[in-house]
Structure formats: structure tokens, C-alpha cells
């Protein structure tokens, strides 16, 4: 666990070779006989918002008890997806835009689990900014995690919807994430910050007052962060997909049932993510703000199972991307996702998971 935490604290890998090398160096020694699985994660920030699909399955030994030897590999979306496509990782947790683009170009990648059930990426400005509407973005600079991240595609669509030319009327710059991105906005190095829910919560914890922007179409983008795998893994290793994602689903139940317990677990598994400069009460208050903010995007709609991908969500994302020239063709929706693993993923005793969640250490 300490080695995983060290890997998270290390600099972001800039290339696929770095990802592979890092994975080899940081993978913890596991008992023999467990099946190895590498999960690439499309962000280098494994803060408490990631508790359901990282620290909780580790702490509860869900993956271990399922016979899996799991290595987490945090990086950016583009590198994470390439790691999966080249076989250097087995699964990737990221937004769907890059995978949809890749699929239209023939890449054998498909969504198997919907983790974030609403659009969670927004452009934000300081509350004191004169920018009041998306049309006010004209001539401004937007800081984003990376040029290849899904948020860029979403923001371009929002700009087009507002009548702006996203390739001429604004300038996108990479600001990374975390404190450096917050500093870029607060110091005026960028006019607008493109980010996601937990990063907004983190900035608010730092005292910033922010205003977020959305649009009618982006509000419909409920194909959020998901798990993707190659087609050959679906055919050859379905049991691994089921086991990994059942633990993620159980982690979601746990995080929603006992947010504070989940936060404490995250700090136990990844101690470097606990703020060392804050007193315990303040650290818990701020950490809970992140966990609870993410929880709003994890909650299930009535009658829906964990991980289930509505075809309407896929259709809305494809329509959005095509309308804004992100893709030029309309792929078959069935090629982009599958719900075949959902029954097996949801095959657990929810009452027992809830009881265990309530018993997490305070």
C-alpha cells in the first residue's frame, strides 16, 4: 500500500513507456495464485473522490479475496487509454469521449461500467470574474488538465452551442491539476479553469469562491466516467471484469452509506493524500466535502443497477460529439458499450455491505 501511495505522489508519467515502467516498479508484492490486473485511471489525482474504486476495494480486501492482484496506474486519459489499447493495462477508468473517438477509428475498446452518472466536468471562474456567460469566453484562456482530456471536447461543444468557434475564439492551455491549476486561475494566468467536481470541491476547501458553467446539451451528458476494456478482454476474461467491478460497486455503496468512514479508509490506504498541514477536524471537514460532492455523481437513478449504462446516455454523448464535429461518423451505439456484466456485478448482498460500511473505523 505504501508503494502505491508513493507511486501516486510521483511525477505524472509523460509517455506510455513511463506508465509501464512505473507499474513494474510500484506494483506491490502479492500472494501467488492471484490473477494480475492493471487498471489505468485517467487522472493523476487519487484524492478522496476516488475512494469507491481505489482505496475501499483495497482496504476491504475485496479484490484480494476475489483472487485478484490489482495494480492501480494513475495518469492522464490519453496515456491511460493507450496503455489499454497496447495491452499494458487491462482496464481504464476515464471519460467516454476519447474512447468513442478511438472506436470510430477502429480501436477495439468498449465501456462495461458507468461510474459517474452525470456530467461532472465544468468550466469555472472566480466569483469576482466579469465573465458571466459562455459567450463571454471569447478571447479568453481556458486552463485544462490536458489537451486530450474529455473536458476539452465537452467545452468545445458548449462553446459551439453558444455560437463561438472553439478553435479560434478561445485558447486552451494545459495547467495540470491540483494546486498548480488553482494557482493558475487565482493568479490570473488563465481566465477560466476547466475541471471536475472533486477539484472544484478542493479549490473551495482552499477558500476560493467559484462559479461553474453548463449548457442545455451538456446537462444531458450522463455518460460520465466509465470503465473501458478491449473487446478481447470481454471475450477471454469476463470473470475478471465482473470481479473488479463488483468491488467497485460495493465501494460505491460503502462510500454513500458512510462517507466519513470511507474518507478515513482512504487516508489509511493512501496516507500521503491526508493534508498534513491541517488539524484533524478541518481535514475531515474538507475531505468530506470532496467525498460528498463526488457522491452526488455516483448515486443511482431509481430502478437502475450499479454500472448500468443507459443507451440514451450513449446516444446523447454521440449526438453531442457529432453535432460539434468531434466525430464525423455515427458509430453503432452497441459497439460503444455493453451491459452484459451488470447482473454479475450486482450479485452481492447490499445489506451486508451497508452493515460493514457502518462499522468502518472512525
Task: Describe the structure in your own words.
The protein is 43% helix and 14% strand. It has a 5-stranded mixed beta sheet, with helices on both faces. It has a 5-stranded mixed beta sheet with strand order 7-6-8-5-9, with helices on both faces. The model is unreliable at 1-31 (pLDDT under 50). The chain is built from 16 helices and 10 strands. It is of the alpha/beta class and 362 residues long. α11 (238-257) packs across α16 and α12 crosses α13 (280-298). It has helices at residues 2-9, 16-26, 55-59, 62-65, 77-85, 97-104, 150-161, 179-186, 197-205, 231-236, 238-257, 259-269, 280-298, 311-323, 342-345, 350-358, and strands at residues 35-41, 68-74, 91-94, 109-114, 121-126, 141-144, 171-174, 192-196, 210-212, 226-230.
Secondary structure layout plus pairing:
Blueprint: H1 2-9, H2 16-26, E1 35-41, H3 55-59, H4 62-65, E2 68-74, H5 77-85, E3 91-94, H6 97-104, E4 109-114, E5 121-126, E6 141-144, H7 150-161, E7 171-174, H8 179-186, E8 192-196, H9 197-205, E9 210-212, E10 226-230, H10 231-236, H11 238-257, H12 259-269, H13 280-298, H14 311-323, H15 342-345, H16 350-358
Helix pairs in contact: 9-13, 11-12, 11-16, 12-13
Amino acid at each position: 500500500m505504501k508503494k502505491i501511495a508513493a507511486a501516486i505522489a510521483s511525477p505524472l508519467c509523460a509517455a506510455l513507456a513511463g506508465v509501464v515502467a512505473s507499474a513494474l516498479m510500484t506494483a506491490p508484492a502479492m500472494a501467488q495464485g492471484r490473477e494480475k490486473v492493471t487498471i489505468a485511471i485517467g487522472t493523476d489525482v487519487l484524492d478522496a473522490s476516488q475512494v469507491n474504486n481505489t482505496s475501499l476495494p483495497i482496504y476491504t480486501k475485496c479484490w484480494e479475496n476475489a483472487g485478484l492482484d490489482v495494480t492501480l496506474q494513475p495518469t492522464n486519459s490519453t496515456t491511460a487509454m493507450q496503455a489499454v489499447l497496447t495491452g499494458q493495462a487491462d482496464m481504464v477508468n476515464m471519460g467516454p469521449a476519447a474512447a468513442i473517438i478511438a472506436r470510430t477509428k477502429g480501436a477495439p475498446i468498449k465501456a462495461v461500467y458507468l461510474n459517474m452518472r452525470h456530467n461532472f466536468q465544468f468550466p469555472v471562474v472566480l466569483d469576482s470574474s466579469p465573465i458571466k456567460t459562455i459567450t463571454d469566453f471569447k478571447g479568453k484562456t481556458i486552463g485544462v488538465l490536458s489537451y486530450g482530456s474529455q473536458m476539452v471536447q465537452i467545452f468545445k461543444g458548449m462553446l459551439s452551442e453558444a455560437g463561438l468557434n472553439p478553435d479560434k475564439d478561445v485558447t486552451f492551455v494545459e495547467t495540470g491539476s491540483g494546486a498548480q491549476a488553482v494557482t493558475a486561475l487565482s493568479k490570473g494566468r488563465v481566465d477560466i479553469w476547466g475541471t471536475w467536481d472533486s477539484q472544484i470541491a478542493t479549490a473551495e476547501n482552499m477558500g476560493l469562491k467559484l462559479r461553474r458553467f453548463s449548457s442545455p446539451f451538456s446537462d444531458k451528458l450522463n455518460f460520465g466516467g466509465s470503465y473501458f476494456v478491449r473487446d478481447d478482454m470481454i471475450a477471454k476474461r469476463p470473470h475478471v471484469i465482473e470481479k473488479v467491478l463488483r468491488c467497485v460497486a460495493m465501494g460505491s455503496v460503502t462510500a454513500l452509506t458512510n462517507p466519513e468512514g470511507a474518507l478515513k479508509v482512504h487516508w489509511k490506504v493512501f496516507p500521503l493524500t491526508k493534508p498534513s498541514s491541517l488539524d484533524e477536524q478541518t481535514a475531515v471537514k474538507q475531505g468530506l466535502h470532496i467525498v460528498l460532492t463526488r457522491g452526488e455523481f455516483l448515486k443511482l437513478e431509481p430502478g437502475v443497477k450499479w454500472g448500468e449504462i443507459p443507451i440514451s446516455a450513449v446516444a446523447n454523448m454521440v449526438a453531442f460529439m457529432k453535432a460539434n464535429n468531434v466525430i464525423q461518423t455515427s458509430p453503432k451505439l452497441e459497439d460503444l458499450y455493453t451491459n452484459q456484466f451488470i447482473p454479475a456485478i450486482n450479485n452481492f448482498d447490499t445489506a451486508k455491505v451497508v452493515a460493514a460500511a457502518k462499522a468502518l473505523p472512525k
